[in-house]
Amino acid sequence: MTAKSLLTALLPLVSDLSRELPEGERYRRLLEAMRALLPCDAAALLRLDGEWLVPLAVDGLSTDTLGRRFKVSDHPRFEILLDGAGPTRFAADSDLPDPYDGLVDGLGDHLEVHDCLGCPLFVDEKLWGLITLDALDPERFEPIELDALQAFASLASATVNAAERIERLALRAEDEHQRAEVYRQASGQQQREMIGQSKAHKRLVEEINLVGGSDLTVLITGETGVGKELVAQAIHAASPRADKPIISLNCAALPDTLVESELFGHVRGAFTGATSDRRGKFELANGGTLFLDEVGELSLTVQAKLLRVLQSGQLQRLGSDKEHQVDVRLIAATNRDLAEEVRSGRYRADFYHRLSVYPLRVPALRDRGRDVLLLSGFFLEQNRSRMGLNSLRLSSDAQEALLAYTWPGNVRELEHLIGRSALKALGNCKVRPKILSLSAADLDLPREVVDKSPAPATEVPAIPLISGDLRSATEAYQRRLIGAALERNQDNWASAARELGLDRANLGRMAKRLGMK
Questions:
Q1: Domain interval for residue 461
Q2: Do 225 and 282 fall within a single domain?
Q3: Beta partners for residue 115, in sequence order
Q4: Distance CA 442, CA 422 (A)
Q5: d(CA 293, CA 187)
Q6: Residues 303-350: pLDDT tens digits?
Q7: Per the domain annotation, does 180 fall within a domain?
Q8: Which of 314, 329, 361 delimits the end of a domain?
Q9: How far apart are alpha carbons 236 and 291 in whole angstroms?
Q10: Range in 29-38, 115-124, 448-457, 463-472 the model is least confident about
Q11: Calpha distance 282→315 (Å, rounded)
Q12: Are 95 and 213 in a shared domain?
């Protein structure tokens, strides 16, 4: 490695330090420069988050790696790299399990003998994360190249530092990590991460950050299993109330009488079994956020009492006439069409309008494209750790099946599918494997959903005889094609777009231009 080649590799990064780039693009360029400096078969940039390593960018590893969260204590190579002051190169025949075993693109075998090195990254003299390199050639990384990696790591740390400073300025956040930690402690549960890179997911995150800074009441809607509670927690974490608790109540899990007691509290003797005074969810959430899940299940009587609290901030415990003042931000969620419920008389219009000050729709998993692979990676790593495997991965046909499926149960269905399939696949192994690969057969998704064969020719509408100019005739035929595709796919726009070979958003814009939306 010459000084000239080192300079050539580092100059683009120096130039990038003064540029505003998306975080993902900045980190992609970082890995690109590193692979130019030290050619390898796989590289990764990982951020240390407590006891977990979170991949921010990968090159030469499977897509689902970005969705994985590596627990440091489960991976001795990561522990050694994090404990080092500089670059560490592992012996080619090291018997330490490799975290990327089974994840290197194009390699179906184990990483039995290969060259592996990595280096910790420090930002403001604090351990920030790692950069790692793997090469299938066990002699690829010569010891002299460790100095080059150390030089690169110093600039990589500056790149990470610049990216984080730009992000803090853009979000106007004083200390995002500290706020997230306070939120985890206040809520009494581990923070769950929102994973995704699709346009639909990014739009959702932008809306969460927008409404999070306000005190508006939010109505989260979406199909079952899309993660509405996770969205509510993210809104709370992005709000000025993040250091206060978020209190949750599933309105469908309790009968009306208990819902009132849970929400407003009760005094001793209010009903049979009320042996002492008890604060309700509103009082527990005072100063923070109250999340009402399945709010469409509330009775008209409870709706009326909730409306009063939302309007005045005053409530009475069940069995008491004493007023209690509360300051609570309300977030509600439902998979019902509340506007239709209002029209049918099953829901109070005034309560609905009080809830839907800021409506927020969570996209279905089928509308999030390749996010399904990132989420799969997250669930695969969870199950790998629970099952004590070295590696748990998806075969190429399994990835195709996941991308083709329409996910009526959304993210929750995916989580259960991965856990169930991994357990069954392991049970079918006579000898416990080092790498367990899940195939499409292991996933056992409905055949008619993942079948990509084209529709019979008879289902394609014939070209109609239309008079007029060419543009009118073309638009008429486009409307017929789109309408037929929607009918075959039960009005599922994402599935219709796949059949027509179009991007979902482009199909939506075309339909709008054609007057179909």
A1: 457-513
A2: yes
A3: 135
A4: 8
A5: 16
A6: 988 888 888 888 878 777 778 888 999 999 999 999 999 998 989 999
A7: no
A8: 361
A9: 9
A10: 448-457
A11: 9
A12: no
